[in-house]
Amino acid sequence: MDKVNYSKKQVVPFLGQSDYAKEICKLVDTIANNKSNVLLFGERGTGKHLFAENVHSKCSDNFKTFFVLNCRLNEESFKSKLEKLKNDLLNPSEDYKSIFFESIDKLNLELQSFVLSFLQEIGKTKNPIKVFCSTESFLENQVQSGQFNKDLYYCISSIILNFLPLRSRKEDILIIANYYKCYFEKKSGIKFDDFSDIVVAAIENAFWCGNVDELINSIQRAFIVGNKSYITKQDLGLESLSSLELVEGMELNVQDKSLKNAIDTFKKEYITKILEENGWNQTKTAKVLGIQRTYVVRLINELNIRVNKV
Fold first, then answer.
1. Which helix (H) or strand (E) holds 4?
2. Chain-centroid distance, C-alpha 38
3. Burial code of 236-267, b = ≥16 C-beta within 10 A, e = fewer?
4. What is the pLDDT of residues 118-157, one digit of tens each?
5. How far is it, in rounded angstroms, from Cα 24 to Cα 2?
6. How many Cβ atoms from other residues are within 10 Å of residue 307's Cβ?
7. What pLDDT does 245 receive?
8. CB count, 10 Å around CB of 204?
């Protein structure tokens, strides 16, 4: 469990000029003045955690501590951290607090009941506690199929917000890229010229499987491997076949034509291709994709990617 004191941390704003980004920024104020629990839905890296941080910091005069609990932990670790969190929250204090349950859709039914009891208990405290939950899955479908606790769903979903993938708001991509280019320049002391038109086009047309998180990793990669006064597509890990070219050549020969399945199919084909080009070396593949090697391993497992044997 991560615990952050926001009296000492400056939060990155939710960036963008699209109508969607502007609306999300307005919702920060709305949610900050609302006591309801919030369910944040969207792909990994779309800004769910960032939104919760912004709401929390908006109440910085009262809200001091922001707790993050990863629901992908094993059962024993999760229960242990939740018990510790309960003790922290029930400890008399004038400070308001926020909790962010990351990937709550990954909890099994037993742990879901455990969380529901936890939320019911802390709901009796005098001081308000803001609760955010993130999910990459449609919890409504899981409730109907009996895979997700109905009472927990109603408890955490007083407000539901949908976060768009980066490829659906292209006008925001360059703004985010420039923000983190400046960020890494200050952090590293390395100075690059502005992005060239070719690089801008590559950034805006990339698929960004990992959304903003992947874009940030790609910019950071350029500060590690770049050796010129300007950032190249190679520095960003975008020198391989472009995402749009791959999409145009991809056929979805399956019965399930849902958006989620289409995205998963693309991810699998794209990552498999990059792995093949790099001799299935995960470290090299991670550099090309501009993401961490551990994320490559996770995608390989999640998408059931296997070495093609001739």
1. strand 2-5
2. 16
3. bbbebebbeeeeeeeeeeeeeeeeeeeebbbb
4. 999 888 777 778 899 999 988 998 999 999 999 999 999 9
5. 25
6. 9
7. 45
8. 16
**For 282, what's the count of Cα atoms within 13 Å in the CB-facing half-sphere?**
13
H-type helices in the chain, by residue range?
A: 19-32, 48-58, 75-90, 109-122, 139-144, 150-156, 173-188, 197-205, 211-225, 233-236, 243-248, 259-277, 282-289, 293-302
Q: How many C-beta atoms surround the C-beta of residue 88 within 10 A?
A: 14
DSSP states of 11-35 as a string?
A: PPP----SHHHHHHHHHHHHHHT--
CB 64 within 8 A of CB 5: yes
- In this structure, the number of other CB atoms found within 10 A of the CB of residue 49 comes to 17
- Quick one: how far is CA 235 from the chain centroid? 23
Give 99's strand partners.
Answer: 67, 131
Stretches where the chain sits below pLDDT 50 are 5-8, 62-63, 241-249, 254, 310
- In angstroms, rounded to a whole number, what is the distance separating the alpha carbons of residues 297 and 227? 28
Q: What angle do CA 152, 154, 157 make, to 5 degrees?
A: 105
223 within 8 A of 190, measured Cβ to Cβ? yes
pLDDT at 255: 53
Encoding tokens for residue 166? 């980066």
Q: How far apart are CA 102 and CA 69, in angstroms?
A: 6
d(CA 197, CA 220): 19
Q: Is 222 exposed, middle or buried (0-12, 13-18, 19+ CB in 10 A)?
A: buried
What is residue 182's predicted lDDT score, i.e. its pLDDT? 94
* Residue 251 contacts residue 206 (beta carbons within 8 Å): no
SS3 97: strand
